[in-house]
Amino acid sequence: MSAAGYNDRRIDAGQIEAHHLATLWDWYTKQPGNREEAARQFQAAAGLDVDGMIGPMTIGALDAPELPGPPENELGLAGPFYLPIRGGCWWSGNAFDPRPRSQGGHHGRDGFSGPKTDLGWPDTTDAMVISFAAGEVIAVKWHANGLWIKIDHGHGLITKSGHLNGTGHVKPGQVIAAGVDLAPVWGGLTLPHIHFETWINGKPVDSGKLLERLGAVPLS
Ligand SMILES: [Zn+2]
After folding, report:
1. What is the Å distance from ligand 1's center to 182 Cα?
2. What is the arithmetic mean of pLDDT over 154-164?
3. Residue 135 phi, psi (nearest 5)
4. How many CB atoms lie under 10 A from the CB of residue 170?
5. What is the distance in A from the centroid of ligand 1 to the CA of 162?
């Protein structure tokens, strides 16, 4: 990341010209979002600090003769990509392990939201879990450890979000954008958390690392 960041906060909103905003929206046409999110996605693609503020560095990049294209990624998926819990998500030390579950495998990562402190694990009960990318909901099912929602994102990628509550805000067959509410985290576990799996072409991959590679950002 290059240095932009805090300088961007000092610009007068009046200095943002209409054509910069139009360029930003032209570039960012795929998802319903807000101006700050459009700026974040653009900044990430332009290699700037990602703060969502349209300041001198961002305007300079929008004025560049060659605009950066939308983010490329290993799966050919269109962004944006979000961390799977509103307000952000960080992962517990429980490692990803691709072995079969009967052999002690763990096909997801366990995520929490809220402030990470020295006092222990934050309570993630009722934190809203969202779709990390656009896709089609293919299953919404209860198991003994909570509700599971499975989404097909195309390009061979399927995600499974587990330990959720309620019946979900979405139904099988529903096509959804990134950042859509799925269901809150279930409190019926010793340490309430989301269990988040990513499968590529039928094989589990480390979801924490995949989200990092795709540049997933927090959504408030
Ligand atoms: Zn887990």
Report:
1. 18
2. 95
3. 175, -170
4. 19
5. 8
- The pLDDT assigned to 63 comes to 84
Q: How is residue 149 written in tokens?
A: 């929602």
Residue 161 backbone dihedrals phi, psi, to 5 degrees: -110, 120
Structural domains of the chain in order of their starting residue, each with its CATH number: 5-63 (no CATH), 90-214 (2.70.70.10)
More confident position, 145 or 17: 145
Checking 143-152 for CB contacts under 8 A at 24+ apart, the result is 145/186, 145/188, 145/189, 146/186, 146/188, 146/189, 147/183, 147/186, 149/182, 149/183, 151/176
Distance CA 178, CA 113 (A): 18
* CA–CA dist 91, 193 (Å, integer): 9
Specify the range with the lowest mean pLDDT, choosing from 5-9, 25-29, 191-195: 5-9
CA 79 – ligand 1 centroid, Å: 25
The predicted-structure confidence for 31-41, as pLDDT tens digits, reads as follows 445 677 778 87
Q: Quick one: tokens of 68?
A: 């950066």
pLDDT in tens, 83-105: 999 999 989 888 999 999 999 99
Packed helices 35-46 and 18-27: angle between N→C axes, nearest 10 degrees: 70
E strand or H helix at 141, and its extent?
Answer: strand 135-143
Measure the CA–CA gap between 216 and 41, rounded to whole angstroms: 10
Expressed in angstroms and rounded, the spacing between residue 69 Cα and the centre of ligand 1 is 35
